[in-house]
C-alpha cells in the first residue's frame, strides 16, 4: 500500500504549477486583443478555462488522500462527475484544435471559424450529457480508500454501462481523428515543400503550435489508453490505479506549462508581464529610497 501523504504531496507538485500557469495564460489571452482575434487562441481560451477547472477538481481529490475519507455520497459523486466530464471536454477541445490546424493549412480557411464554433458547442453538449448521466442513480465514479484512485461504481445501471461504452467510442474516435488530422497536415507541408517552385515554408509560430499540439496528443494517448482499455493489456492493481491517477493529474499542468513556455505568442506576452512587474517593483523601491 502506498503512503497517502507521499502520494498527495506528489499530486500537489504536479497540479499546483499547472494551476499557476493556467491563471497566467488566461490573463494573457483575456488582455491581448490581437490573440483574441485569432481563432485558435479563442479555442485555447476555452481549453485553458476547462483545464483550470479540472485542476480545481484534482485539488478536491488530493484532499481526500490526506483525509483518508471521501466527502460523502453527493459531494464525492459531483466531484467525480466534474472530473470525468472536464477530462472529456479537454480531450474533445484538443481535437477541435487539430481540426482547426487542418483548416488553416489547407484551402478551407473560410470554413474554420463557423465549423470550429459548432464543434466547440457540440463538445459542451456532449460533456453536459455525460455530467448528467454521472449524477444518475447507480452511475458515476467512486473513490475507494484502498485504491486511491477514481473508479466506476459497482453494479452500474444500464444507462451508465451505455455511457462507459460511448466514452470508449469517443476516446478512440478522438485519437483516430487526431492521427488523421496531424498526418494530413504534415503531408500537406511536405507536399508544398517538395513540389512548390517558390515555397516559403510554414511560419515558425504555426510550426510551434503544431509541434506542441502533437506532443500533447501523444501524452493524451499515454494517459487515456491505460484508463479506457487498460484491462485488455494490464492486470488491475494499485500500481496501475496510481499510475492512471498521476497521468490524469499531470495532464492539464503539462499542457498549460507547455503552452506558457513553448507557444511563442504567449511566451512573449508572459515575458512582458514579468518585465513590467519587475520594472514596477524597481520603481517602487527607488521611490521608497528617495522618500527615506
Note down, in words, how this protein is organized.
It comes from Steinernema hermaphroditum. Keywords: Membrane, Transmembrane, Transmembrane helix. There is one protein chain. It contains nine helices and two strands, in the order H-H-H-H-H-E-E-H-H-H-H. The chain has helices at 4-31, 33-36, 39-67, 73-104, 109-134, 158-195, 204-229, 238-262, 264-291, and strands at 141-142, 151-152. Strands 1-2 form a two-stranded antiparallel sheet. Helix 4 (73-104) packs antiparallel against helix 7 (204-229), helix 7 (204-229) packs antiparallel against helix 8 and helix 8 crosses helix 9. The longest helix has 38 residues, at 158-195. It is globular and about 60 Å long.
Distance between the termini: 60 Å
Strand content: under 5%
Unreliable stretches, pLDDT < 50, 5 or more residues?
A: 281-292
- Topology pattern, helix = H, strand = E: HHHHHEEHHHH
State Rg: 22 Å
Based on Cα principal axes, name the global outline.
globular
| Mean of pLDDT | 83
| Total strand segments | 2
Strand order of the largest sheet: 1-2
The helix tally amounts to 9
State the share of residues found in helices, binned by percent. Answer: over 70%
Structural class: mainly alpha
The biggest beta sheet reads: 2 strands, antiparallel
Protein name: 7TM GPCR serpentine receptor class x (Srx) domain-containing protein
Keywords: Membrane, Transmembrane, Transmembrane helix
Transmembrane segments: 6-29, 41-66, 78-104, 116-136, 169-189, 209-227, 239-262
Amino acid at each position: 500500500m502506498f503512503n497517502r501523504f507521499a502520494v498527495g504531496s506528489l499530486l500537489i507538485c504536479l497540479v499546483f504549477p499547472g494551476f499557476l500557469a493556467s491563471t497566467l495564460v488566461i490573463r494573457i489571452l483575456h488582455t491581448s486583443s490581437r490573440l483574441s482575434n485569432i481563432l485558435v487562441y479563442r479555442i485555447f481560451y476555452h481549453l485553458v478555462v476547462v483545464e483550470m477547472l479540472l485542476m480545481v477538481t484534482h485539488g478536491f481529490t488530493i484532499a481526500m488522500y490526506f483525509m483518508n475519507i471521501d466527502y460523502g455520497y453527493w459531494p464525492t459523486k459531483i466531484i467525480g462527475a466534474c472530473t470525468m466530464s472536464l477530462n472529456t471536454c479537454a480531450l474533445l477541445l484538443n481535437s477541435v484544435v487539430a481540426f482547426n490546424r487542418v483548416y488553416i493549412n489547407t484551402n478551407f480557411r473560410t470554413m474554420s471559424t463557423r465549423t470550429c464554433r459548432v464543434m466547440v458547442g457540440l463538445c459542451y453538449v456532449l460533456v453536459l450529457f455525460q455530467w448528467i448521466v454521472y449524477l444518475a442513480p447507480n452511475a458515476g465514479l467512486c473513490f475507494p480508500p484502498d485504491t486511491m484512485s477514481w473508479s466506476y461504481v459497482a453494479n452500474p445501471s444500464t444507462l451508465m454501462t451505455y455511457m462507459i461504452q460511448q466514452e470508449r467510442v469517443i476516446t478512440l474516435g478522438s485519437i483516430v481523428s487526431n492521427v488523421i488530422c496531424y498526418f494530413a497536415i504534415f503531408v500537406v507541408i511536405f507536399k508544398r515543400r517538395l513540389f512548390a517552385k517558390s515555397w516559403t515554408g510554414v511560419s515558425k509560430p504555426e510550426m510551434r503550435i503544431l509541434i506542441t499540439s502533437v506532443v500533447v496528443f501523444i501524452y493524451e494517448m499515454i494517459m487515456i489508453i491505460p484508463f479506457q482499455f487498460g484491462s485488455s493489456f494490464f492486470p488491475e492493481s494499485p500500481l496501475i490505479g496510481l499510475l492512471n491517477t498521476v497521468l490524469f493529474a499531470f495532464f492539464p499542468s503539462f499542457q498549460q506549462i507547455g503552452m506558457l513556455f513553448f507557444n511563442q505568442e504567449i511566451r512573449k506576452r508572459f515575458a512582458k508581464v514579468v518585465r513590467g512587474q519587475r520594472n514596477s517593483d524597481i520603481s517602487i523601491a527607488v521611490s521608497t529610497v528617495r522618500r527615506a
